[in-house]
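Quick question: what would this complex look like in 3D?
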Amino acid sequence: MTEIFQSEIIISEISNLLKDDKHVAIGAASPIPGSAALLAQEERKNTNLKLQVTILHSQKFNNFTDGSRELFDASAQGRIDTFFLGGVQIDGEANINLVGTGRYPKLDKRFSGSFGSALMYFVVPKIILFREEHTPRTLVKKVDFISAPGISPPNIYRPGGPKYLITNKALFSFNKKKKNFKIEKINPEFTLNEVIKSTGFEFKTNKNLKYFTMPSQKRIHILRNLIAPKVLNFYPQFAKKLWFN
Amino acid sequence: MTEIFQSEIIISEISNLLKDDKHVAIGAASPIPGSAALLAQEERKNTNLKLQVTILHSQKFNNFTDGSRELFDASAQGRIDTFFLGGVQIDGEANINLVGTGRYPKLDKRFSGSFGSALMYFVVPKIILFREEHTPRTLVKKVDFISAPGISPPNIYRPGGPKYLITNKALFSFNKKKKNFKIEKINPEFTLNEVIKSTGFEFKTNKNLKYFTMPSQKRIHILRNLIAPKVLNFYPQFAKKLWFN
Amino acid sequence: MVNFTQITVKDIAKEVKDNCLLGIPADYSGVPMSVTIEIIKNKTKGLRLYCLPLTTIQGDMLIGSGCVNEIETAAVTLGEYGQAPRFQDAIENSKINIKDSTCPALHAQLQATEKSVPFMPLRGILGSDLYNNRNDWSVIDNPMNNSNTNDEKIVILPAVQLDILIFHASKADINGNVQIGRRRELATLAHASKKVYVTVEEIVDEDFFDSELKAAATLPSLYVDGISLAKNGAWPCGLTDYYDIDTIEMSKYANAAKYQETFDEYMRDFISQNNYSNI
Amino acid sequence: MVNFTQITVKDIAKEVKDNCLLGIPADYSGVPMSVTIEIIKNKTKGLRLYCLPLTTIQGDMLIGSGCVNEIETAAVTLGEYGQAPRFQDAIENSKINIKDSTCPALHAQLQATEKSVPFMPLRGILGSDLYNNRNDWSVIDNPMNNSNTNDEKIVILPAVQLDILIFHASKADINGNVQIGRRRELATLAHASKKVYVTVEEIVDEDFFDSELKAAATLPSLYVDGISLAKNGAWPCGLTDYYDIDTIEMSKYANAAKYQETFDEYMRDFISQNNYSNI
């Protein structure tokens, strides 16, 4: 049996989350979500429920023609089902921080910036938070800076918001009413206690806690033979490291 | 000497009003202004002050690429120097009516509608009002419906507005502060008294009243040989009637 | 084999439900005449037309055929062929409601929906009777202090969401992308519409996104719910690079439409002649 | 012979005055690197960068070279090559002001200028610390009753007028029209800028408006104040259909920029190598 990489397991898990989507968009610096979306697209190729995947940093997988604002307009129009957001920090109420740690504006450690999160998080129905590193410094009690809030009061237009958080250790769902995360799946390489210790916020445990599903041989075959070459086009560094080294 | 048509004299007069412009735009159903702009463009071809002419109903003389809103956006940005507006009725304060006569909305006589006048009249610095028919029913004391007002109070953003009114009988200038028209030129086929009688509003007379200038033979040559074939492309009915019958 | 929903002109017309808000392209944007005839044959009622920013024979025919309840537009005209007679008659005899507008307002209201914001500000308009007759428009004090005009008043316009948009275009590719060229107002219309149907002169065996140049001229399939082949689908209107306006037919229409009786007669002929062979 | 103002890259850089508000295209929109180097050589000071919506090596170099006083952006990053080190250093040590924004807000502020309206509404943003740190943004009660959200609060953003925009593109035609393809954000930037200068890979002996397809991919000369030929003008960034990003140079830069000393050394080399042969 071939060795399966951790990143491939996460790609596979994310792919499962895209089941009923019609259109998934992938923003900046998101090779793992991008691979997952292309995988889901490939697997549904011969079904009636086609999946459109828009990868902003690709020429080929980007069918927008109204300039770089079209992603945001189309999302606001409700035409994008799923989008991914990351975070330097993510807290227990699903607030995300893409700006940096320390006290704003003179931060201790500055990161790139909020990108489109402050709109996308409000309007895309299924936002999947993705941060590979799962440690108390990434998953925190309270973010130092809110790039986009996890929840909003009723007088704010908010058809969208966080649905899942996935890391290299676990998959969480988010409950908007209770304003908390619940663990759904765990990477079999870690114990629940280890996950709790690595998480800066409290989350709801789960009696039916499952393990990350190992991707089937068929899925791995598709991923390595059909998806990897595509990813090489627009995330060359990532694809080379994982598949072509 | 060749016979010169009335329409050609008006085209020539309008062309003179475009002297310092860099960009003139021509809207719907404006064959005479369109011909005048192309004439001015041709005559300035070998000078340093080129004239750009945008004729919306032409493919060739329309260099916009942002769809039909670009005329309005570009005008609001201050990139269009001169635009033409007409009117079912025009009154002494330069209010224009493109909608119809009688009591709105159940009008006695409905016309096409206001087109872009309600923005263009506010933002284009030199609006030339053009209405061939010069009678008390077209030049009225008070329009029945204001498609766009001639003047605005100071709390309204209004870099643009009416500068001239030209008809088959006369050319008027508009004084924004005094809110009235002043006659500048008269068609030699009419007397001032006839013009006064044909005008439903009072206007300022002019000690230096001039006649419409007869276009030179050279200008008529350019108009008939270089401009007429262009006009035939986008105002075929007009061009055929005037030049190709 | 195409990878999109290919339907008939008749099917498109069936999607135009009574009382819906229908997007109407200008004469230069690809007038879907073949579908318009089918709508008229269906005796569709109560349509509300939203013109971007005007309509010519399409709107006049729909009005004359009794399909229209309301029209929001900057103009209805037959252009060089004169006023739009059925429209004039309908207004002068209060047969339809009119929301008289101005071109940039019609654009801005769709751009608001495109961005999913509830309104758009627009300069101009104030002091006109357009404003005085629109109770869906309001005026606010400019909330910004970035203007040179003190205590500026500015109009705000509501976002308008179309129920359905139909237009005619030159080409679709095998994946349902539509070539719109410079007619980018069609993109704005499509972005602001719940459903979008397109008739085309031809379906070509390529993907426009394989060429950056063609891609730039394309409305992506993402916004298109169905496409039908309809040769001469804009006739008697013109279509850029395909055919000019049919001046004889337009004159004939302009003349016939002057009276309801002659209009009705014209329409009976027009419909029975089956001008769009491939329906 | 061309019918437009053809100038040199050095001339374009001279138009970038101290303290001006400079439009910065994203990495995918044509980064004008050849002009950027000249701006750095000119020791231009106090620049305010307006990024649509982000910048990579261009912004980082300008910041590291001390040309920048303020930046309004949704992100500064070297993408796959990591964080932008000179930007990080400048923020962490308060060397420049930052107006942290989000992509759609950067678009909307220019669209306001495009329409000459004083502001644009935008949903989202509220509840973020972006909003809390922007005193040029405000919130109003939605003045429309067309929303399903009761007593909705909505952000309004000011119109932003750029002083100057510079970008790199593939082609200009003999009449000064510029091919921008699908990169329509360049049109928005140009519409909202007082001056626009473009560097291109080639000037072709045709008029793009002779073909509807090419016209659709064109920024009209009307918005362009000057064009310079600059082969490889985006290098080490990429340009669609011309060349990919230079991964070796980007890695080299990412590494060198980690410290001011090594950045300065890198820049000395970069400038002395004269990478843009035709300047």
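Answer marked as accepted. The domain at 9-102+161-272 of chain C is CATH 3.40.1080.10 (Glutaconate Coenzyme A-transferase).
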